[in-house]
Structure formats: C-alpha cells, structure tokens
Specification:
Length: 716
C-alpha cells in the first residue's frame, strides 16, 4: 500500500502544479467577455473543403476530448437513456443508443451546417446535462434542400486479403420535414498470429503453441431519422436502425509437446460461425409553452440477438485425421424498453428546474449447451459428443427500473454556475430458467457540477456524483470464457449486485487566444463499493472454480492532461498537434485471491497518445498520424488459480488525403505501422494463487500485421 500512497501523492502534486500553471496563464489573457461558448461558423471550415460533419470536427482543437466523453472517465454500463450526451444537432439529442448522434456525423454533408459551437456552460435551456463540454451542430434553415453523401472503402491486409465496404446516405429537408436515410456495408477482417511458450513450474520446457486466428465479418446496416417541426414550439422525431452480420472465426493451433522422450506435434482446429442482428426504434417529442417552459419525452425499444457455435477438432499429428473434442452452442437475446419524460420550468432569469421520471424494462435470455468426449456413446447431433448438464446454463433475467429525477440549474452570476440533480432508483431483478431468484434495489444518486469562468478562455470545474453501474446480465448465468482457452465456460452468479461509486473530479479548461488551441487538465478520484471482480465458488481444493462477483471496496484515481495546439509559432498555422497523457492507479481494499497489490480495469497505469494533422490548404491536401504509447506493467488480472499480466501494444497509424477529381476526397490510411507484438504472461498455480506454488508459466505473443485502407468520399 506504500507504493499506492506514494503514487497518489505524486499524482496530486502534478495535478496541483498543472492547474496552478494554467491559472497563471489565464490571468494574463483576461477578457471582459465572460461568454465561455466557442463558435465556429461554416466559413471557418471552407478552406479545408470538408465533405461531412466529421471532416469539420477534425479541424477543431480539443474536439477529441469531447467526442471521447468529457464526463466521468468510467462508464456506468450505458445505463438507460440518462440525461447526458456530448453531441447535439440543432440543440437536440438523439433518442438512440446503438443509433446514436455520433454515428450520424459521417452521414450529414458539411454543406448543411450553419455553425458549430462548443458549449462549456450549463443551463436549463440545454436539452441535456453538461458534464464537461458539449458540441452543438446547428444546421442551415432552408425551405428545401437535398444531399447525397457516399463513401467507398477498399481494405488491404498484410496476408493479402482485401475487403470492400461502403456507405451511402440521403438527407432532405422539405418545409417542416427533414429526413436522413443511410445504408452501410462494412467489413472487419483480422488475421492474428500467435505464439505461446509454456514452461513447467521448475522452468523446464512444456510445449510450444503456434496458432492463427482469422476473423471475417461483413455487417449490413440501415439507418433512418425523420423529424417533423410544424412550428418553432413543437418537434417530433423518429429514429430507426437495423444491423445484421454473420461473423466467421477460424482458429488453427499446432502444438509441440516436450514432455516425452521425443517431442511430437499435433494440431487443433476450431470454427466459430455466428449470427448477429439488432434493431432499434427511438423517438422524442418536445413542446414549448408561451411562457418558455417545456415538456419533452423520449422512448427507445431495441433488441440484440447473438448466436455462436464453437466446434473444436483435434488430430494426433499435424495434418492427420481429426476427432471432435468440443461442441459449445451459445445464444442470447437482449431487449430494452425505455421511456423518459420531464417538464422544464424557468424559475427566473437565472434559474431553471427539470423534473420527471425514467422507466425501463431490460430482459436477457441466455442459453448454453456443451458436449464433450465421454466413455458413453455420443449424440450425432453434436458431432458424436456427449452433452453435459451444467447448472444455470439457461436463464431469463429481467430488470424493471423506475427513476424519478429533479435537475436544478443556477447561473449564480456572469462567471459562476451550479447544476445539481437528485435521482432516486427503484428496481427489481428476477431470474428464471434453471434457477429462480428475485431481488429489489433502492438507490439515491446525487450530483453537483460547479463551474467558474475565470475569463472567457479559462474555466474551472468541480463535480461530485454517485453512480450505480448497469449489471451485465450475461454474468447471471453460465457463460463462455474468451480470456482463457483452458476454461471453456464459467459459472454464473445470480446474486450479483450493482457497483456503487462516489466520483469526484476537478479540472481546468483553457482555450488559447486567436484559435491557438485548447489545454485541459483533470484530476479524478473514484471510491467504489461492491466492486465487481472474481470471487471463489469452489466446492473443494481439487476443483477450483470462480465467477464474477462483488469483491468489495476499491479506489481509482489519476490525472489526465489534454493539449490540442495549432503550430502557428512554427509558421504552421494549419497544423494541429494533439496529446493526451493519462496517469492513473487503482487498488482493491481486499482481494480474496492474493495479498499482492494490484489494480483493476480500465484503470491501469495509463499512457500517452499523440496525434498530428497538417492541412496544406493551397494543395487541398492533409496528412497526419496517431501514436499510442502505453505505460507497461499496468494490466494484471487474477483468478483463484492463475494470474495474467498483459502488456498492451503501442500502435501507430498514419493517413494522407486530398480533395481532387470531381471534388471527391481521396484518403489513404495505414494501420499498425509499428507492427506491434503484444505479449502476456499467465502463471498457473497448484491450488490458490495465494499459495504461490507455480505449476505452469505461459507466455503468449501476437500481432495482427499491417493493414491499408483507401477511401473515396463525396457529396452530390
């Protein structure tokens, strides 16, 4: 714990120095204008010849921080609709989860944009709560307009595979109606080469495993957004989404066993065909009264279906006759039905109040069937293998949740604002199928957000909130274990409870003068209760088993520094350098598996992300790169009988694009230029990890190779 306390004090020290330095810089830039909103008119982007809204946002300093989510650092599991969204279009959020606002930005033509603004304040006039900064994209008002945007993509991979993809979208406004319809065909192809060396506990050689995993997935998507605004006081919107895909995963492993007098080799082959589809319908309604008060309502209905069949075959020699060794059939259906309604009242010129309720029903059906070799005759339906009856393999989990809420906005004076909210939650979770269980939960979730505009360039922010995470219903029943090939399934936990956390953040956001860029610093501290990790459910020492469960208290803390600077001081005013430095730590108060200090995901040590973009406007040419450097030794996971240390790879990508023939944008991208090799070490133990009796050491390294994409985008 000494190391953790030292790291925490070190992070606090860096945070204090950074925030104090930014404060001193800002006082030198004092301005009488205290409006913290930054506006970029469409004319600002004309020199870059943008095709879509995404092209426009790429030129705005600091935009990557907002698009990545400028609120709390850890997601609460995408719980319900909530009251936040970092992207607005015409001041409105999109009633969607899979079909979200961010996905529309590549489908709306840049010609339709009037201006883009970055909102750093908070107000009841906003359609959402502002937990950091909000990008509002305001479209041109027109009696009639119509635009077609398209993109064609050709991907090339190091193993010689090519995969085409493309998108076409049509948007139109006609009087009070506006439409956006798009279709997309995308392809995800990965060829992953792996090599694993296994040693016994005494460091003698056990085996080598040389294996390849190929993933090939083509996804078909259709999106539709329709808006009807009969007056400036009423708005109706409907959003539709449908996706389907049939991903194919193939694995081929060659084992070399050194445990006999003479080494020998054999192979395993796996096929994992899948069927996935999901759809979503969302809508919203808003009405503004004559006194300025508003009512609004949103709803979402969605469904996600997945089915995967994993079949494994083994041959006694490489290339020899194969025999089935595993038949694992899993399927799930996840459904949500959410409605949120509220009334927004303007209490005075400087205060507003929103109150309402959100209700949600979430259902997950999960089914698992496994068959393995046995001494009894097998079933031909399962490749001659014998099905095994596993407990809690089939289940239906349902949550019904109600959340009344109240949100108060107060513009204290021209510099200070305070947004506070209180949410009460009542939920009931029932599980049926192989097991029957029913539980009730009650939570109260306050939140306070205070902002102080030191001047129109520098803003200080402090926030505090309580968060309750969304449980993964797949953890309630038996499921597959993709992180460990030696364990095909893991037990479910019908007693799992939501994580609770108290989250505090302080930060400074500084916009450099003359569009010189943006600098942001944030320090965060999260205090968790009921943190989810691995718990022991073993019946005896000879058959150790674990599952996801509530481990207990834990903490996470860190400092995040963002800089997005135009290089005008190097006579490159159209060049933009971005960097994100993350320094963070986490710790459990008490891990039952090991007395050693270790953290939890996603709060490993952090890293540095560098980006560079140079727009040569005289040539209609842009080029740049993105480089991710990660602090090593930060990601470690524990089970009851093994420990896994994973080193995430550094990655480097680059691009060059040019607006050329027919005013199309031609872009060439290269990914994994560093040709990374990511490695991890797993220690397996006789008995528990805490007994420190090492049985086997596995070192696994992999790479995915270089890939190149050529894209052509245009509007008509």
């Amino acid at each position: 714990m000494v190391v953790m306390r030292y790291t925490k004090n070190w992070l606090l020290g860096i945070s204090y120095v950074t925030l104090a330095s930014l404060t001193n810089m800002a006082h030198a830039q004092e301005s009488a204008d205290n409006d913290s909103t930054i506006t970029f008119p469409a004319s600002y982007f004309a020199q870059f010849n943008p095709t879509t809204i995404n092209d426009m946002l790429d030129r705005v300093p600091g935009i990557e921080l907002i698009r990545a989510g400028s609120g709390t650092l850890a997601s609460d599991g995408d719980r319900g609709l909530g009251s936040e969204s970092p992207i607005l279009i015409d001041g409105k959020r999109l009633a969607g989860k899979a079909n979200d606002t961010d996905s529309q930005l590549a489908r709306i033509s840049a010609d339709e944009v009037d201006y883009i603004e970055i909102i750093r304040g908070t107000s009841s006039d906003l359609d959402v709560q502002n937990s950091g900064q909000i990008v509002n994209i305001v479209l041109l008002e027109s009696e009639s307009r119509s635009t077609i945007a398209s993109e064609v993509i050709l991907n090339y991979h190091e193993d010689g595979t090519t995969s085409p993809a493309g998108t076409v979208s049509w948007s139109r406004q006609f009087g009070p109606w506006s439409y956006l319809l798009s279709g997309q065909v995308s392809n995800t192809y990965t060829h992953r080469e792996n090599f694993e060396e296994s040693l016994h506990g005494d460091l003698s050689l056990n085996e080598y495993i040389d294996w390849d995993r190929t993933t090939d997935e083509t996804q078909y998507s259709v999106n539709a957004n329709v808006t009807y605004s009969p007056s400036n006081r009423d708005r109706f919107a409907l959003n539709l989404l449908y996706n389907e895909s049939e991903p194919e995963n193939d694995v081929f492993r060659v084992f070399t066993d050194f445990n006999s007098a003479a080494a020998f080799s054999f192979h395993e082959r796996e096929t994992l065909p899948s069927n996935n589809d999901n759809w979503e319908i969302g809508g919203d309604f808003q009405h503004r009264f004559n006194n300025g008060n508003r009512i609004k309502a949103l709803f979402i209905v969605n469904e996600n279906n997945k089915a995967t069949l994993r079949e494994r075959f083994r041959a006694g020699t490489v290339g020899g006759d194969e025999n089935p060794t595993l038949y694992l059939d899993t399927s799930s259906r996840y459904q949500e039905r959410i409605v949120r309604a509220s009334y927004i009242a303007k209490l005075s010129e400087n205060q507003g109040l929103e109150f309402g309720i959100e209700a949600a029903q979430t259902i997950q059906n999960s089914n698992l069937l496994i068959a393995v070799p046995s001494s009894t005759p097998g079933n031909p339906l399962y490749n001659g293998l014998t099905p095994i009856a596993l407990p809690n393999a089939n289940s239906t989990v349902e949550e019904v949740r109600f959340e009344p809420f109240v949100i108060h906005n107060w513009q204290i004076n021209s510099r200070m604002s305070l947004e506070s909210s209180l949410v009460a939650e009542w939920s009931e979770i029932t599980q049926g199928g192989d097991l029957n269980n029913k539980r009730d939960f009650n939570f109260v979730k306050p939140k306070i957000d205070f902002r102080y505009n030191i001047n129109n360039s520098l803003q200080a922010k402090a926030s505090f909130e309580k968060v309750v995470s969304q449980l993964s219903f797949g953890d309630f029943s038996r499921n597959t274990n993709p992180s460990d090939d030696d364990e095909d399934t893991i037990a479910g936990n019908p007693s799992l409870e939501p994580e609770e956390s108290l989250r505090a953040e302080v930060g400074l956001d500084y916009r450099l003068p003359n569009d010189g860029g943006a600098i942001n610093a944030r320090y965060f501290y999260y205090d968790f209760d009921n943190k989810i990790g691995k718990i022991d459910i073993s019946q005896n020492i000879n058959n150790l088993q674990s599952t996801n469960g509530n481990v207990g208290p834990g903490q996470a803390y860190g400092l995040i520094l963002n800089a997005s600077i135009r290089l005008g001081f190097l006579n490159l005013p159209s060049a933009l350098l971005t960097s994100v430095l993350t320094l963070q730590e986490s710790e459990f108060d008490d891990d039952p598996f090991t007395p050693r200090e270790h953290g939890f995901r996603p709060f490993d040590r952090g890293g540095l992300r560098l980006g560079y973009r140079h727009d040569v406007t005289s040539l209609n040419l842009s080029y740049g790169f993105n480089w991710l450097l990660l602090i090593k030794g930060g990601r470690r996971g524990f089970d009851n009988d093994n420990e896994f240390d994973f080193v995430r790879p550094d990655t480097l990508s680059a691009f060059v694009e040019k607006v050329g023939y027919a005013d199309f944008t031609y872009r060439l991208e290269a990914n994994n230029l560093s040709n990374f090799h990511a490695c991890g070490i797993r220690y397996r133990f006789n008995g528990y990890v805490r007994d420190n009796d090492v049985r086997e050491i596995e070192q696994n390294c992999y790479t995915t190779g270089l890939s190149v994409a050529f894209k052509i985008r245009g509007t008509f």
